[in-house]
Amino acid sequence: ARCGSERREEGSGASSERIALMRAFAHRQTIVKARKRIIACRDPDDDYLLEIAIAGKADCIITGDDDLKALDPFQGIRIVGYRDFKNLFASSKGMR
User: Fold this and answer.
1) DSSP code, position 26
2) Span 36-47, mean pLDDT?
3) Which end of the chain is more exposed for a tag (fewer CB within 10 A), N or C?
4) Number of CB atoms found within 10 A of residue 87's CB
5) 45 pLDDT band (50/70/90 cuts)?
6) b/e per residue 65-75 (b: at least 16 CB within 10 A)
7) 67 with 43: CB under 8 angstroms?
8) Are 19 and 9 in contact (CB under 8 A)?
9) Burial of 53: CB neighbours in 10 Å, binned 0-12, 13-18, 19+
10) Are 54 and 38 a contacting pair, CB within 8 Å?
């Protein structure tokens, strides 16, 4: 079974390296429920991502969305593109 984000990535011509990265982190997935409403992003449709990242105590959000990346860091959560994440992960051998 594949997660929805992986299907989107594959459908949009994502590199096999990105898909492999998503699969490598699949065992760390946790289902969370947002507990606090956040209004912070210039695109209000993206606020829910901040809400679930905080609820899930995420280290980072990996996105290509410039509206989200403009908030980096947000309440201690890094918001980076794939290349930046790859560089951060390689240099720190993990986030936390």
Assistant:
1) G
2) 96
3) N
4) 12
5) very high
6) eeebbebeebe
7) yes
8) yes
9) buried
10) yes
Burial track 7-33 (b if 16+ CB lie within 10 A, e otherwise): eebeeeebeeebeebbeeeeeeeeeee
pLDDT tens by residue, 53-94: 999 999 899 999 999 999 999 999 999 998 888 887 777 655
Give the count of alpha carbons within 13 A of 41, CB side only.
19
Which whole-number Å values give the CA distances from 19 to 16, 48, 51, 52, in the listed order?
5, 23, 25, 22
DSSP 12: T
Residue 44 phi, psi (nearest 5): -60, -20
